[in-house]
Amino acid sequence: MRLFSSSDLAGVGDDDLYSTPAAASSAVLLPTLLQPRVVVFDGVCHLCHGGVKWVIKADKHRKIKFCCVQSETAEPYLRLCGLDREDVLRRFLFVEGPGLYHQGSTAALKVLSYLPLPYSALSAVLVIPTPLREIAYDHVAKRRYDWFGKSEDCLVLKEKELLERFIDREELVSRGGSDFSEF
User: Fold this and answer.
1) How far apart are CA 48 and CA 108, in angstroms?
2) Per residue, what are the HEC states of the chain?
3) What is the spatial distance between Cα 104 and Cα 120, in angstroms, rounded to a whole number?
4) How far is Cα 40 from Cα 154, in angstroms, rounded to an integer?
5) Which residues pair with 45 in a beta bridge?
6) How far from 40 is each of 29, 43, 117, CA to CA, in Å?
7) How many CB atoms lie within 10 A of CB 126?
């Protein structure tokens, strides 16, 4: 578990935290669309994509949102957490809410805690010490491309029905060309 401190926000500009609506003429600042419960993951990894598809299917109440680490939309989340893309390529990121994020096995178990039963019960595995869980997580993570494969671009582009759960869908759609014009 990680909480943000004021020093964590030192490198984050006001543009990351606030935005002004284009139509407004006043200088009123509004929060941006940095959303809670966002999974930032390796969008070209077949194993990661399979996990995202599974969570989308299990998440009947649509609590979890997703973002490919390869997208520009991921950048504000990475900055707020003090991470770079390489960190997330090693261990996926779950931004649970303001000031709170998780990586690796803890992130996976925290995501499960938001799903309905019986899946949320699996989050009880959090009682296993983090170093032991991370040994297993890191073993699979290091070999995932060899075992499951890797694509050239974010795999969600091949399954447009998943796009509605992605906070970076506009960016993905613009990359995907005319096949996604109805979104």
Assistant:
1) 11
2) CEECCCCCCCCCCHHHHEECCCCCCCCCCEECCCCCCEEEECCCEHHHHHHHHHHHHHCCCCCCEEEECCCHHHHHHHHHHCCCHHHHHHCCEEEEECCEEEEHHHHHHHHHHCCCCCHHHHHHHHHCCHHHHHHHHHHHHHHHHHHHCECCCCHHHHCHHHHHHECCHHHHHHHHHHHHCCC
3) 17
4) 12
5) 150
6) 26, 9, 23
7) 15
pLDDT tens by residue, 58-115: 999 999 999 999 889 899 899 888 898 999 899 999 999 878 999 999 999 999 999 9
Q: In sequence order, which residues have a C-beta less than 8 Å from that of residue 32 and are 6 or more positions away?
A: 16, 17, 18, 19, 76
Higher pLDDT, 80 or 153: 80
37: Cβ contacts below 8 Å, ≥ 6 apart: 63, 64, 65, 94, 95, 96, 97, 114
Check: CB of residue 82 under 8 Å from CB of residue 110. no
**Which carries the bigger pLDDT value, residue 167 or residue 23?**
167
Amino acid symbol at 46: H
Distance CA 162, CA 51 (A): 13
Which amino acid is located at 115 in the chain?
L
